[in-house]
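User: Show me a protein chain along with its predicted structure.
Assistant: Here is one chain, sequence first, then structure tokens.
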Amino acid sequence: MKRLVLLATLLLFVTICFSQQSFYYKMSATAIANNGVQKIYIAYEIAGTKQIDSFNIQTTTSLFTRKIPQPVAAKIYTNIKRINTLDVFLANNTVLLTIKENRLTIPVNKLQIDFLTLTANDRIRPGYFPLYGELSAKNDTVGLNKLSVIFDSLKKDDIKKSFVYARANRQSLLQFFAFIRYTSFFADYAKVEKDFSLLPEWAKNTPDGKNILAKIEGAKSVQLNTRAKDFIQATSSGQKISLKNFEGKYVLLDFWASWCAPCRKQHPALISLFEEFGDKKFEIISISLDDDRKAWLEAIARDKINKWTNISDLKGQQNDIALKYGVQSIPANFLIDPTGMIIDKNLEPEQLYKKLKALTGN
């Protein structure tokens, strides 16, 4: 009996240690040129909170060590703007950084190669952003549609690569990162639950793991024919509004962000819908997942969506309403009837038009 108790205690101890696994990274910075670099910065984000670590270059070689709550993607840069930024994955590893005259370099290893492969499209997309701005300014729908095809292709490639990696590398510390990448495109986060259950315990107990679980539970609680969850959030003019303020109307909760090209591509169609159905007890509440107030307000003005209610708490993807509704991928939307029930979700503008036409008898 004593042996059984001892074995059970040992198993419990091992389980607790495994589920509470700690993480760190070390960085060795070696300067081989006098280029004015005095400080190294390491920027990353965990569960919506941005973090910047830094250390001074005091001698030819400097060493920096930091505990982190989970493996994480990071950007390394210096106090000299002309020097490149490096993308790196931090996961119980030592990053050997070399500071040359005009650039930073690190040795190539399997973890870094896999990480750069998974994130390759992140370095491609920004090249299209200026073109998107030009096409939007000219209202070039043909060009925007072609650009949309490119973005959609990049998205599909991201999903495929991340899904395959997560399934094939369950022991890798990069597996959880791959899981987050491919599930971030799920419109209904309740469908992530099965894959989440297969993650190692250490991943589930990280800040991002707990955040994902909260979104899964949120998504499960806002399925069709359930009551929409109330909220209070500030409008672009600073006024606090509640979903209850719109009782008696059909309400579209539209989740978007200034940096989301597919979201903004839908705005002209939503404007047309609002102009046709806005006087028939139909309202749009656009909920921004921005964390930059200036970018948010500029996008509202440029896209001319100040015709309806715009709200945000400027917490980015950790927006309180997004968490409540389990929103991970945008654009996303929920259609709520005058009694407060969710009657449809994730409707394309054409689908929404047909739905409102049928509901209002117009």
